[in-house]
Amino acid sequence: MSTAPAPSASPIDPIALDLAGDPAELTAALVDIPSVSGSEVVIADAVEAALRRLPHLRVQRVGQSVLARTDLGRPSRILLAGHLDTVPIADNVPARRDGDVVHGCGTTDMKSGDAMLLHLAATLPEPARDLTFVFYECEEVDYDRNGLTRIQADHAEWLAADLAILGEPTNGNVEAGCQGTVSAAVTARGRRAHSARSWLGDNAIHRARVILERLAGWDARIVDIDGCEYREGLNAVGISGGVAGNVIPDECTVRVNFRFAPDRSADQAVAVVRDLFADFDVSVLDVAAGALPGLHAPAAAEFVVAAGGRAQAKYGWTDVARFAALGVPAVNFGPGDPSLAHTREEHVSMTQIRDMTAVLRRYLAG
Amino acid sequence: MSTAPAPSASPIDPIALDLAGDPAELTAALVDIPSVSGSEVVIADAVEAALRRLPHLRVQRVGQSVLARTDLGRPSRILLAGHLDTVPIADNVPARRDGDVVHGCGTTDMKSGDAMLLHLAATLPEPARDLTFVFYECEEVDYDRNGLTRIQADHAEWLAADLAILGEPTNGNVEAGCQGTVSAAVTARGRRAHSARSWLGDNAIHRARVILERLAGWDARIVDIDGCEYREGLNAVGISGGVAGNVIPDECTVRVNFRFAPDRSADQAVAVVRDLFADFDVSVLDVAAGALPGLHAPAAAEFVVAAGGRAQAKYGWTDVARFAALGVPAVNFGPGDPSLAHTREEHVSMTQIRDMTAVLRRYLAG
User: Fold this and answer.
1) Given CB atoms, is A185 within the 8 Å cutoff of chain B?
2) Which of chain A's residues have a Cβ under 8 Å away from the Cβ of B242?
3) I want to staple B261 with a disulfide (CB 3.0 to 4.6 A). Which of A185, A221, A314, B223 is the partner?
4) What amino acid positions of B are annotated as catalytic residues?
5) Which residues of chain A have a CB within 8 Å of the CB of B240?
6) Hey, where are the domains in chain A?
7) CA distance to partner chain A, nearest, from residue B269 (Å)
């Protein structure tokens, strides 16, 4: 059973994708379909058309996101998700092969992960666990535009699962949970004066040294949760102050970023920042909760074993946190070095794409 | 003897100024001729026409500056200077009288000083000391446009004197010499990293705390020169750093301003900054030498006595430093509170204008 094509589908024939072939070649084919955030219609049409040819999947289009699922009555369900969008192209499309390596926009983040998941969608008609695939739009931009936000609001039933696996780049590892993040502006105040009579003023930039001393001296926790080590960090990521070259400044603002382990709630993390700078003005700019790794859940524990027995902490913030908030244990597992994400030099090993696809196949085929 | 009018003079009749009347009323008349830097032609024409009517003065026009002098063969010569330009008008022209106070653009800086000097030019045909008057353009803008720069280059003989008295606002006091100033950028460097993995980077903003600690802990000298107390100051006047909200920054720059006593040369002052921050990158942005008060020179010492016996240090930088560099002792002596300069609220006491004019008259009449 499949629903009618969405009215937003392109009127021309979708690009044909060979899902059942080599997932490394499929990665290159996906890179060759430009899909910067907000311009995913062509790639979504291609993915939708390819998935609709598979009789074991039920497919639904939501905007430029594509959902597909098995309904085999298995005792557990695994959700496999990848975003279809990329950051802006930097003269790195089409894909370029060099020996075992594919270079190009999205090779790491995350068309190699998409290729791995699409290949498994096509080649596992009888998995041991029921599968839900989510290929979504606009992950690289605002939370409100993220395809998962719309799916969660209008089609929440599609996100129910015992474990979510996101194909974000982990370089072969299982990365579980994620840190949270707080951004805040901490402001020191003083009193203006002409710099020729500086003793009549009170230099706010000089006062800001106290903020920097506390940051530099802050004792960063290292926390073990479910065998994953989370290392916190509290840093100045920006500073500004000054009125003119001959004026003692009356204000200096330090922008602080706190990356916190997921054993703290977002509120607790904000309190850490507020308490540390209780004698300054603190304005919280942005907060995102972390995600506990949740590896004690049976489906998650089994996946870690299948993937080699070790999981590690994810340091960036990913949609794993969204699933954790929904009560679904979630991990990242995808090809490519995460430190290459968003760089012009993005590339991925074709061998790693094939090897990780094989690992995930063993787990899902069970 | 007088030279022919300069070709740049306005073709219409100049505004008539009554130099011999009340210098306080003359202040208001000068305020009513707008003369923002670069637009001094009308006021220069009026000043030139009024001075040319005085047979005891030789007059020369240089651009929008007006020079005048006695040549009586006296044993000493006093140069009296005032700039004709103002900062931009801030809804404070024409002048407004309120009891003893005149409000308006330039009342403090420095049309009251100009009025004092113009009144003395007109009413001291037989001074005990030869007099040189310099009413000049563009003091409030770049050094290169300052009328004194052109006079110094093309008519240096006009600047020779035993003492220069600038009518810049001193609120009734004699202010001698001036501080020098050094502006420099002091940069801390580090290594970028994602803020989620901050331990892989080296936070340049955190490092900049060392710069701020040294500034905050700096022991400011207080120096007595010729009975004037100069108080130094070394301050951060600006700070900037940061790449993005999720990046450990690799650079943080503190803009430092050093106001130094005139017993240090400009080179020595630069060395103080370079030595204090020897372990950082230091880039000198701007240097202006100070000016020693020079009050041991006979003409200067006599003026201090005539003005009440006390001189104090000037904290801002003024053209006094230019005369000091030429070997001419120089002081500031003019009506108005210097802290009102460049404010919308500029105003001056009419009594103070008359009293200071009388003090200066006694000294020049000798």
Assistant:
1) no
2) 236-240, 255
3) B223
4) 85, 139
5) 239-240, 242
6) 23-177+291-365, 180-288
7) 15
- Looking at the whole model, is its pTM more than 0.90? no
Torsion of CA A320, A322, A325, A326, to 10 degrees: -100
| CATH placement of domain B180-288 | 3.30.70.360
In whole angstroms, what is the distance from residue A102 CA to residue A94 CA? 10
CATH architecture, domain defined by A23-177+291-365: 3-Layer(aba) Sandwich (3.40)
Q: What is the pLDDT along chain A (366 residues), one digit of tens a residue?
A: 344 444 454 557 999 999 999 999 999 999 999 999 999 999 999 999 999 999 999 999 999 999 999 999 999 999 999 999 998 898 999 999 999 999 999 999 999 999 999 999 999 999 999 999 999 999 988 888 999 999 999 999 999 999 999 999 999 999 998 889 999 999 999 998 888 889 989 999 999 999 999 999 999 999 999 888 999 999 999 999 998 888 899 999 999 999 999 999 999 999 999 999 999 999 999 898 998 888 889 999 999 999 998 899 887 778 998 998 899 999 999 999 998 888 889 999 999 999 999 999 999 998
Which residue in chain A has the smallest CA separation from B199? A233
Chain A closest-CA separation from residue B267 CA (Å): 19
For residue B124, give Cα distances in angstroms to A172, B19, B21: 94, 11, 13
The contacts of residue B153 (CB under 8 Å, 6+ apart) are none
Neighbours of A86 (CB within 10 A): 30
**Neighboring chain A residues of B259 at a CB cutoff of 8 Å:** 195-196, 198
Give the pair of three-digit tokens for residue A321: 């946190």
Q: Per the structure block, which two tokens stand in for B318? A: 């003024």
**B 165-184 residues inside an 8 A Cβ radius of A:** 179, 181, 183
**What does DSSP assign to residue A219?**
-
Phi-psi group of B38: left, alpha or beta (phi > 0 → left; psi -120 to 50 → alpha; rest → beta): left
Interface residue of A198, A339, A340 to substitute, partner B, most B CBs within 10 Å: A198
Pairing label, strands B281-288, B180-189: antiparallel
Please confirm, yes or no, whether A85 is among the known catalytic residues.
Answer: yes
Among B231, B237, B250, pick the best mutation site for testing chain A contact (most A Cβ within 10 A).
Answer: B237
Report which of B64, B89, B77 is spatially closest to residue B148, judged by C-alpha positions.
B64
Residue B4 CB-density burial (10 A; 0-12 exposed, 13-18 middle, 19+ buried): exposed
Cα–Cα distance list, A266 to A231, A287, B191 (Å): 16, 7, 28
Q: How many CA atoms lie within 13 A of A201 on its CB side?
A: 28
State how beta strands A163-166 and A330-332 pair.
parallel
Q: Is the ipTM, as predicted for this complex, more than 0.90?
A: no
CB within 8 Å of A345: residues ≥ 6 apart: A103
Say yes or no for a CB contact (<8 Å) between B236 and A206.
Answer: yes
Rounded to 5, what percent of chain B is helix, strand, coil? 30, 30, 40
Do the two domains A23-177+291-365 and A180-288 of this chain adopt the same fold? Answer: no
- A204 token code pair: 């706010």
- Listed in order, strand segments (DSSP E) in chain A are 58-62, 65-69, 77-83, 96-98, 101-103, 130-136, 163-166, 174-176, 180-189, 193-194, 222-225, 228-231, 233-242, 247-248, 251-260, 281-288, 311-313, 330-332, 347-349
Give SS3 for B327: coil
Q: What is each CA distance from B57 to A124, A184, B2, B41, B137, in whole angstroms?
A: 106, 68, 8, 21, 20
What does each C-alpha distance from A1 to A52, A59, A69 come to in angstroms?
9, 8, 11
From CA A206, how far away is CA A188, in angstroms rounded?
9
Please, are residues A193 and A177 in contact by the beta-carbon 8 Å criterion?
A: no
In chain B, residues 256-315 whose CB comes closer than 8 Å to chain A? 257, 259, 286, 315
- Is the separation of the CB atoms in B226 and B189 below 8 Å? no
